[in-house]
Design a protein that fits this description.
It contains three helices and four strands, in the order αβββααβ. The protein is α+β, with helices and mostly antiparallel strands and 119 residues long. A hairpin with a 2-residue loop joins strand 1 and strand 2. One of its GO terms (molecular function) is ATP binding.
Length: 119
């Protein structure tokens, strides 16, 4: 199993209702990590996330389909712990072949616009 680097450590946000919080980072990785935690696509390795003093683990999660901007591979495996061959096997299961031609971009590297608008 691949070890994943901790991207966020000791982050606290306190804001009033309807107040917006903007996260600014160099690589977009922190913003992506926050979204992944909120949507529970990755597990916390410590601490907790609360909204209105309620742990997000106990909140009802909307099961609507969602896609993040990034690559197809990042959307299939947000934690980045799977090998490309494993991700390609997933694509085969849903009848989407990944390209293997030399010089041709892999479907895993294909860009996904926010909410999958370019698909």
């Amino acid at each position: 199993m691949t070890e994943v680097e901790l991207l966020i450590n000791n982050a606290n946000f306190n804001n009033t209702p309807e107040e917006k919080v903007e996260v600014v980072d160099r690589t977009r990785a922190d913003k992506r990590s926050l979204a992944q935690v909120l949507f529970r696509t990755v597990e916390l390795c410590g601490g907790m996330v609360t909204i209105d003093e309620e742990d997000v683990k106990h909140m009802r999660l909307d099961t609507s389909t969602f896609l993040f901007s990034g690559s197809v591979g990042e959307n299939i495996d947000p934690s980045g712990t799977k090998l490309d061959v494993q991700l390609n096997d997933i694509l085969k299961l849903i009848h989407i072949q990944s390209s293997h031609s030399v010089g041709e971009k892999s479907k895993l590297d294909s860009s996904v616009a926010n909410e999958g608008l370019n698909l």
